[in-house]
Specification:
Blueprint: H1 5-12, E1 16-22, E2 38-39, E3 42-43, H2 44-52, E4 58-63, H3 67-71, E5 76-78, H4 88-98, E6 103-108, H5 118-125, E7 131-135, E8 140-148, H6 152-160
Parallel strand pairs: 1-4, 1-6, 4-5
Antiparallel strand pairs: 2-3, 6-8, 7-8
Helix pairs in contact: 4-6
Length: 161
């Protein structure tokens, strides 16, 4: 998809918080922390951070383990506000709650080749929707999303039900 120059300009005029979702248990990885697995000599989350930083005003990291390793990035790190690893939506809720901007771009920690125009692409596709996420031909990828902070209360209510 091509992003128009006017859309890139509009994106630069809007404040975004980026949140790297690294709070999982790693249950499919034998308990390993996916964000800390290395690719080309550096942790996966650092590849995501490098790609996300130029697209947003600030990057936060959602992590529930190895907090000190993530804090070494210089980013603010927060844990889920809900107990027992309820999944990536809990990290997204905490990200919305920690954000000081209206819009939050979420990225999974294991997406090292995040497009350099990821936020602009989602911004262009959002229309009037309060949330938009990546969809491939096979499935939705809700951990790659642009979400308006106004959805925090509804998301929390849904997670608590």
């Amino acid at each position: 998809m091509q992003v128009s120059s006017s859309m890139i300009k509009e994106t630069k005029m809007t404040a975004f918080t980026g949140v790297i979702l690294a709070g999982g248990q790693g249950s499919r990885m034998g308990g390993l922390d996916k964000g800390l697995l290395e690719l080309q000599g550096k942790p996966l989350y650092q590849h995501v951070l490098q790609r996300l930083m130029p697209q947003v005003n600030i990057v936060l990291i959602s992590a529930n383990r190895n907090i000190d390793r993530y804090q070494a990035s210089g980013c603010q790190v927060f844990t889920d506000s809900m107990p027992d690893y309820p999944g990536p939506l809990a990290g997204m809720l905490s990200g919305l709650q920690h954000s000081k901007t209206e819009w939050v771009a979420f990225c999974a920690c294991d997406t090292p080749w995040l497009p350099e125009d990821f936020v602009a692409r989602l911004w262009q596709q959002r229309g009037a929707a309060p949330a938009v996420w990546v969809r491939s031909t096979q499935r939705d990828h809700p951990a790659l999303a642009l979400v308006n902070r106004s959805l925090a209360d509804d998301l929390e209510a849904w997670l608590l039900r």
